[in-house]
Amino acid sequence: MLTLNVYPFQLKLRHTFRITHGSRDYQPTVIISLSNGIYTGYGEATATKYYGLDQDEMIQRFNAWKPIIESTPLVTAEKYWELLHPLLKNHPFEQCALDEAAHDLMAQIEGLPLYKKWGLQYQNIPLTDYTLGFGPIEEMVAKMEEMPWPIYKIKLGTKDDLNIIRHLRKHTTAIFRVDANTAWTAEETLAYAPELKELGVEFIEQPLKPEDWEGQRRLFEQCVLPVIADESCQKEEDVKRCAGYFHGVNVKLMKSGGLTPALRMIQEAKELNMKVMVGCMTESSVGITAIAHLLPLLDYVDMDGALLLSNDPAEGAIIEHGEVILPHRNGIGAKLI
User: In what order do the strands lie in the sheet with 3-19?
Assistant: First the structure.
């Protein structure tokens, strides 16, 4: 018999975070634990307003599901995901938290870090980028100076996007990645891309609205920079649809429903010869450390969520100048502090 505990937190950001979908200073999140009486696994689900999530409602759902969650047999994390999926299929963020906790718990029971339980070696690890939300140029430059980094992910979607990149380039030799968060048209993307490439941009993430498949086909065929799907790739069935429209996909654990489906999405994308990135929400070290175990499988990673916080309630993976260092603990390795 398992025991479920639910812990709500208000994550405070170091700086106001701005993207095309809005700005915020706090991010509510729900961290859950699953215990078998000996070991305890942790998982996380952020209450992201953009996805229609409310922290109080998430807590109510976990409490309502508690008898089923605790009585469902945990033989493997993958089977546990399948057994709970009929109940949670419309709640991928909550299922992600439970799936992370189940993987954490099972790997602890086996006495292994999670990546080793999966048969992976912690090598050929990509560096994580550091995200700059858009704002006044001086503010963005100050954030770079505060956090010198080898790769920056720059949120765009303003009337002055090219000028922002031109100015930022004067202050660093770092690799740039651009995330337009669906704010551009195909024509704008094709017009911007040649100069962005000259300015050291590695790829463009989700420039178009998710429904603009015709425009995305043009970018796949004509854009001088690779284009990575984000909003267009949220669930497992989206990976195949993105083939021939995007050069790669950004898999997010909470949107897909956890590590179990994310592993399948990564494998399918590789079979379709697409680049694979895993991204994060603004989340604590619980969710971020779960992502770290996928690193041997990835081409790119964006797992800076906990770095953006001033009150991380957990500890786990340490990130130094883009390099991700896992804690010396079994399971996922994250814990509340």
Answer: 3-19, 22-35, 40-46
